[in-house]
TrEMBL record:
It comes from Roseobacter insulae. InterPro entries: AA_ABC_transptr_permease_3TM, ArtM/GltK/GlnP/TcyL/YhdX-like, MetI-like. One of its GO terms (molecular function) is transmembrane transporter activity. CDD domains: TM_PBP2. This is Amino acid ABC transporter permease. Belongs to the binding-protein-dependent transport system permease family. HisMQ subfamily. Part of the binding-protein-dependent transport system for glutamine; probably responsible for the translocation of the substrate across the membrane. It is a multi-pass membrane protein.
Length: 269
């Protein structure tokens, strides 16, 4: 190890030490000072009741499986529709100009309207048409609302990935005799998709959390079940249980997204 490497190692070690000490100091201050506040006993009884936590955790975990199922069948639809909108926005042929307009309007509308409002409008509006079962199910129309909203965001992420591919790649493929369609399919899209995987992972983490918003239109998933327990037990601990369950899923997914982002950045550097 030369002098420069030794210096960099010492600096990293020093930074880690300072970060560890500061983090420990902050945690210690929270642990020691919060219980000294006047209202802490009431807050602890209302939000951190161990008996209520143990009582509600199994049921809330089963209710969370509904969130997972909605997420699982929404993701393929979101990715498919998002890719279609991204390709429509990037269409170059003059005859496809209406598709570009449609794609732009679609993205502007569904990115501009809050997701909870879209869920309300579709989840209550479409079943109000008097459709027969199962077409009046809140699971169906809640999923539609999520797909419409998140596909607009995914479309923009994919479009940015497509536009990040240098024009020389497209020109080289055309010179080799590939059609515009094959160039997009075999040359542009594979590279673009790889570049936007970290960003799309973050969007999917957000989707997993927003599935809970469907509780506003009927499905008894984890948030609705926590609200039922809160009313029955007159205690807010079930909401803390729901938060813990979400964290168990979303924190590893977020860290994995960060890992992919760092790996992609290192590969480019």
């Amino acid at each position: 190890m030369n002098r420069r490497q030794a210096y960099e190692t010492a600096q990293r070690r020093r930074s880690l030490t300072v970060a560890g000490i500061s983090t420990a100091a902050v945690l210690a201050a929270i642990i020691l000072l919060v219980p000294l506040t006047p209202g802490w006993p009431q807050v602890r009884a209302s939000f951190f009741d161990g008996g209520v936590f143990a009582q509600t955790f199994p049921t809330l975990l089963r209710a969370f499986l509904i969130d997972v199922m909605i997420f699982a069948w929404s993701v393929p639809l979101i990715l498919t529709l998002g890719l279609a909108i991204a390709l429509a926005r990037g269409a170059r042929a003059p005859a496809l100009f209406p598709l570009r307009i449609f794609g732009a309007v679609y993205v502007d509308v569904f990115r501009g309207v809050p997701v909870v409002l879209t869920i309300y409008l579709i989840g209550f509006g479409v079943p109000g048409l008097g459709l027969p079962r199962p077409w009046n199910s809140p699971y169906i129309w809640g999923t539609v609302a999520l797909v419409l909203t998140y596909s607009a965001y995914i479309a923009e992420v994919l479009r940015s990935g497509i536009e990040s591919i240098h024009a020389s790649q497209r020109n080289a493929a055309i010179c080799l005799g590939l059609s515009e369609r094959d160039t997009m399919r075999y040359v542009i899209l594979p590279q673009a998709v790889r570049r936007v995987v970290p960003a799309n992972m973050n969007m999917l983490v957000a989707l997993q959390k927003d599935v809970a918003l469907l509780s506003f239109i009927g499905p008894v998933e984890i948030l609705r079940q926590a609200g039922i327990y809160k009313s029955l037990l007159a205690n807010f601990t079930p909401y803390v249980v729901a938060a813990v369950i979400f964290l168990i899923v979303t924190v590893p997914a977020t860290r994995y997204a960060d890992h992919l982002l760092n790996r992609d950045r290192d590969a480019r550097s």
